[in-house]
Design a protein that fits this description.
single chain; alpha/beta; 7-stranded parallel beta sheet; 12 helices; about 40% helix
C-alpha cells in the first residue's frame, strides 16, 4: 500500500522501518522490546492485540477496494468441491459429479455480469467469490473470460488453500477472521448468488438471509441455484409451518437454474 501523499511535518512510518535496518547490532537493538510495535509480528499476534488485528483485517481490503474504485459487487457463494464438467470424473461422489453443471452456470453468470460491469469501468457489480476452487474458481474465471476484474476473499485454513488463478491479483485478499471476511462479502453487495455447497456455503447463506430478515441489511436479489438440491437438504416450508420463520420470509430468495434465469431475476427485482 502506498504512503499517503498529503503533506505533513512528520516522518512516515515506512521510513522508520527502513532506518531500523541501519542501526548498530547490539544486544539492545536485537531485543524484541526494541522493535517498532507496528513492525513486530510477534507482538501483533499476541492475544491482547486481537482487537487491532480485527480492525486491520476490516481496514486493509476496504482501503484497497476504495482505491480500486469498487462501488458494488455481485456475490457468488458455492462449494469448493464441485468440479468443472470436464473433470467431473474426479468428483468424490455421484452427487458432486451431477452438480458439476453448476460450475459452468457460475462461470457463465459471472461472465455476463462482468460484461455489464465493464460498461461502468468495472467498478460496479464486480464479481466477488471466496477465492478458492470449485464454484469460486468458476466465478473468477467467468469474470476473466469477459476481460474484467474480480475479487477473491480467501481464508487461511489448517490445510493451506491457494487462491485460484483467475482472481485479479490486486484484488486477492486473505483473512484470518471469518467474521471480517463475511462483512466484506456483503458490504458492497447488490446481489447474492448461492450455488450448491457444504457447511461453509450454508453458513454464508443463512447468515446473509438472517441479516435481510432482521432488517440489518437491505433486501436484494438473493438467488439459489439448483432448486432440487436446495429443497432436498432444507425443508423451507417446514420452517414456515412450524412458525420459526414467517411465510413472507420464503420470499426473501428465488430459485434459479441457469445463468440466464439469474440475470432475469436481478433485472426484474422489485425490492
Amino acid at each position: 500500500m502506498k504512503d499517503d501523499h498529503r503533506r505533513h511535518p512528520f516522518r512516515y512510518s515506512r521510513q522508520d522501518i527502513e532506518t531500523a535496518s541501519e542501526v548498530p547490532d547490539t544486544p539492545q537493538t536485537r531485543a524484541p522490546a526494541y522493535r517498532l510495535a507496528f513492525a513486530d509480528d510477534t507482538f501483533l499476534c499476541r492475544d491482547d492485540l486481537r482487537p487491532v488485528r480485527l480492525q486491520l483485517e476490516l481496514l486493509k481490503p476496504e482501503l484497497l477496494m476504495n482505491e480500486a474504485g469498487i462501488e458494488s459487487t455481485i456475490v457468488l457463494f458455492g462449494g469448493a468441491r464441485i468440479p468443472q464438467p470436464s473433470k467431473k470424473e474426479t468428483a468424490r461422489t455421484k452427487t458432486l459429479e451431477a452438480l458439476s453443471e453448476y460450475y459452468e452456470e457460475a462461470r457463465k453468470f459471472a461472465r455476463i455480469m462482468t460484461e455489464r460491469s465493464i460498461t461502468t469501468g468495472n467498478t460496479q457489480d464486480v464479481v466477488v467469490t471466496g477465492g478458492g476452487p470449485g464454484v469460486m474458481e468458476a466465478g473468477n474465471r467467468g469474470a476473466q473470460d469477459a476481460g474484467g476484474k474480480s475479487i477473491g476473499l480467501n481464508i487461511v485454513l489448517p490445510h493451506e488453500q491457494a487462491p485460484n488463478e483467475y482472481v485479479t491479483p490486486e484484488l486477492c485478499f486473505n483473512f484470518h477472521y471469518f467474521a471480517i471476511r463475511k462483512m466484506h462479502f456483503l458490504m458492497r453487495a447488490k446481489a447474492v448468488a448461492v450455488f450448491p455447497g457444504g457447511f461453509g456455503t450454508l453458513d454464508e447463506l443463512f447468515e446473509s438471509l438472517t441479516l435481510i430478515q432482521t432488517g440489518r441489511m437491505e433486501r436484494l436479489p438473493f438467488l439459489l441455484f439448483g432448486e432440487k438440491f436446495w429443497r432436498s437438504i432444507i425443508n423451507w416450508e417446514a420452517l414456515a409451518d412450524a412458525g420459526t420463520i414467517s411465510e413472507e420470509d420464503l420470499n426473501l430468495f428465488t430459485f434459479v437454474e441457469t445463468a440466464e434465469d439469474a440475470v432475469a431475476a436481478i433485472d426484474n427485482f422489485k425490492g
